[in-house]
Write a structure and sequence with these properties.
Elements lengths: L26 H10 L22 H10 L34 H20 L6 E2 L22 E3 L2 E5 L7 H10 L4 E5 L7 H4 L10 E4 L5 E5 L2 E4 L3 H14 L2 E4 L13 E3 L5 E8 L14 E8 L2 E3 L6 E7 L5 E7 L5 E5 L8 H15 L3 E2 L4 E2 L2 E6 L3 E5 L4 E7 L3 H17 L8 E5 L21 H8 L5 E4 L12 H17 L4 E6 L9 E2 L8 E2 L7 H9 L4 E5 L15 E2 L7 E7 L9 H12 L14 H17 L6 E4 L12 H14 L6 E2 L3 H17 L3 E6 L4 E6 L5 E6 L8 E5 L2 E8 L4 E4 L4
Parallel strand pairs: 1-7, 3-4, 3-5, 5-8, 8-15, 17-30, 18-21, 18-29, 21-22, 22-23, 23-26, 26-28, 28-29
Antiparallel strand pairs: 2-31, 6-7, 9-12, 10-11, 10-13, 13-14, 14-15, 16-33, 19-20, 24-25, 27-28, 31-32, 32-36, 33-35, 34-35
Helix pairs in contact: 1-10, 8-9, 10-11, 13-14
Amino acid sequence: MPTLKPVRPTDRSAHPHRPRRLGPRSALLLLALTLSACGGGQQGAPAPAPVPDTAALTPEAIEAKLTSGNVDLSEITHYGDPVTASGDGAYVQPDVDLPDEPYAPTLIAGQQLRDSAQQAAASARLGETRVPGSLRAQAAPSGLSGVTLTPDRTQLQVLILHAGAADFGLPSARALLQAHGIPFTTLDATTAPLDAAALVAPDGTGRYQAVVLTSNALTTETRPGYYESALNTDEWSTLFEYERTFGARQLALFGYPQASPEDYGLRAAPELASSAADLTVTPAGKAVFADLTGAVPVRYAYNYPSRLEAVPGVTTTPVLTDANGNVLAATSTSPDGRERMLLTMAQNPYLLHTQLLGDGLIQWLTRGVHLGEYRRFLQVDIDDWFLYADRFDPTTGKIVPRDFRLRGSDALSLRDQQSAVRTQYPAAPNFRYAQAFNGLGADVTAPNTCAPAASVADPLSAVTKCLANSFDWVNHSRDHLSMDTMNRSDAFTQLYQNALIGSYMRLPMSLRAVVTPEHSGLGWYSPAAGQNKVDYGLNAGNRELMQATSLMGMRYVASNHSVPSQWDPQCPNCGVTSPLNPLTLLVPRWPNSVAYNTTAPDEATGQYNAVFGPGGTAPYWPKNLNYDEFLAQDVGISVIHLLSGTAWPHYMHQGNLKEYAPGRSLATDWVRALLDTYSGYSTLPLNTLNWNSLGLYVDARTRYEGDKGSVVAVFDRKLNTVQVQRSGAASRFVFLSGAAASATQKTEVYAGRRMAQFTVGSAGTTVPVTPR
């Protein structure tokens, strides 16, 4: 729904790029206004509430009041008006020709990432690679001679060896380890030496539990068609000796199988090379890729199908093959007992096969024991419950303002659709929608019933009370006003009054979270009416809004992953701490292709094609898409989000919940299409958390990512223990995967894996582990 915007002052001299903020007020006046929380009146509305006791209105007191349900109707200043704004600001008719958030730019960004990934992986080429020197495969002298070694002890860290910043395998290696929270070091083999000091700590402990090669020979193309390894003979020898001595497994993410620098027992068949393949997990491969259920499609990624080659002392086990039995991934044991795995297809973190294979590769590489953790999520938010939605008319191509509001029957159907999803998809047994609600549209006096009589003025409000426990409920402000320039007292009123309405209606709210209207207040806004929003950065957000959220005890604020400043590309699994309030953690959300102003398939495809069809405003496809094609193109991107291990919700809007056919809505059609695709590939479960729990998880993962650089964890493979020490005086928070059932630390189990989480103090912590 378009945001109802207060009239802005015309003087913008305070900041040339944004509307002027309201002028400063005294702290006393702000407090008085905050506590009075008076909205505009309407006929039949309750009288304004008396000013509460100032000493009692703390975040703790607010939470206690809201959770107790001890809210009196007289405290609610305005409700039951789903069409117009309250008197908090002069109402301005929104420009109904523009969606509530720039539809094309956010979706184009996702398409561009996918297109770029496809182009990069499809153009990746390798070939017979010369190794400087005269290395005899797997038989060179040791590079660790004279070094003190404690071969049973290795640090829980992974070494990425690459062939320079332009190495196309480097982003995939980074993303693979980042998704699991695993600490890693990158070494550019074109500039830095690989010697004993780089691999072994002064006390003889191995610095790395495993090694990732971006390509099997660390290939550089020194001139067109001429390939040379970035490591010389001595360096390869040193690496092999380290892996043998410390039992470090090696993973080559892409390779052209040959005898040098080491022989995997495979030979490339270059005449079969292409940019597409369909991979099958072999019976032996099930030990590596246990969750994969069907063929793994490789598209837009150059690959080298290979054949087994008998090599003395080498045992090669195919784990991925094509329809003709050609090998595209294999584990291989060298004559000296080292364990390697080679993939012969290019990787990119935005490609499906890379994401599908990633978790199995990590479990094999680390034997399931590593710092960090990994799980998958299915979080779906619905914004604007209780309000009206605009509707795209596919016949006229125009947007009809305020043309649809949920009916009680739509809400009842959504409950049943949600239950059916849980039953029919084993990967999503706990799926639940989160409803971001605007209490202005609610009739708080409606009866609590799932079968409202004809005399009930607002059946949606009545049914909402009946279905309260079916969904998670999140504060979306009372009136859906823009909060870009809203002062602290008005922002507090919007949040507090909405929470009072939710509490009065007995909605089980996630009180620590808030979804601001259109993600407003975060420095992303239109420079002028009718223009697309511009990302001015989080520092250009609304500081007073952030203060208001803290007064409410809200820590987790939804942000938009399509806006560059509202997520952290250096830490894709992290929330973002607001620079305006260190108590606020931003939790990014993904938009999808289901526009806010669509209620049925013809509207959804009509709106999409009006932008991306051949005659659209941002043409992308050669033809207009039908409904199945529309869902498929979006799910092709969204399934990557699930596989990446990020916890970020996807969000849609209340118009998308209309029951356009028995048991059908756009929102649940999208969820089903996503789960059909996901379940066709993987059996790993998808977690759904309420927003309070989601925020706590993101908070913990963000803290871990900030702390892991100050933690040293040493795996003793003889004792099967991990000893964790901190550096510096501060305590450090740790996730550790592979904990044994006997671990005394707090643990969680996901897909049969036990993950410990604990704080490391000055004495350190020892955790028993169970390697795979």
